[in-house]
Specification:
The chain is of the alpha/beta class. It is 23% helix and 19% strand. A seven-stranded mixed beta sheet has the order 3-2-1-6-9-10-11. A two-stranded antiparallel ribbon has the order 4-5. A hairpin with a 6-residue loop joins strand 2 and strand 3. The protein is globular, with a radius of gyration of 16 Å.
Length: 215
């Protein structure tokens, strides 16, 4: 966090609007093509920018969680080139917040979030690279803030996911006042589309530059 004793106050209403990157030319016309482009763009990001993004996520989202009076924050464990949430997990634990991580149900689509002591307590899912928590699931209403991975977001912060639809199914179960933050590099904030009605619209995006709101 920016200061362990006095975290910076962050108001969603005061965030700057997201700035879109130019994106590819010509623009893809299908979600599958957008996903392929975004995966390649994310893998091409240099290591210093990745580290800066993880550090910015830790500071900005921890300050936001404290400002919101959040008690339980849902995170994901990074897979591949996803933004590293481990510094954020440490910052939230220092602030005294409860962490929760996603776990797929047997259908491999439906998500539960489970309270967890931190990244070191996660276990590898059988026959998978996913790291998941053990224990009973929390009610979705218990989550005050969720940090969601995304391949890209558009001006409305519609999230382009991996295609499984797990977060799209879970987000409507959250409380109306719960906040969803997408973790996306600025290079992947682009006018992707078309977004579908079920695609999650985040309340904020956190790039390596900081938090931003939808346009």
């Amino acid at each position: 966090m920016s200061d362990a004793a006095t975290p910076r106050v962050v108001a969603l209403s005061a965030l700057p609007a997201v700035t879109l990157a130019p994106g590819p030319t010509p623009a893809p016309v299908t979600k599958a093509a957008w996903r392929s482009w975004a995966r390649n763009a994310r893998r091409a990001l240099p290591a210093p920018l990745r580290k800066r993004h993880a550090d910015t996520l830790a500071t900005a989202v921890a300050d936001l969680a404290t400002s919101l009076g959040a008690r339980t924050v849902g995170l994901y464990h990074p897979l591949g080139a996803e933004v590293d949430t481990r510094p954020l997990a440490n910052a939230l634990l220092v602030a005294g917040l409860q962490l929760a991580y996603p776990r797929l149900q047997r259908d491999n689509v439906t998500l539960d979030f489970v309270a967890c002591a931190g990244p070191s307590a996660l276990q590898q899912r059988p026959r998978s690279r996913l790291m998941e928590p053990a224990g009973p699931p929390l009610a979705p209403e218990a989550l005050d803030l969720v940090v969601a991975p995304a391949l890209a977001v558009d001006a409305a912060l519609a999230r382009l996911g991996q295609g499984g639809g797990s977060y799209d199914r879970f987000a409507p179960l959250l409380r109306a006042d719960a906040v969803v933050v997408a973790a996306v590099a600025s290079a992947c904030c682009v006018a992707w589309g078309p977004a579908a009605g079920h695609d999650v619209r985040a309340h904020a995006v956190c790039t390596e530059r900081g938090l931003a709101a939808p346009c």
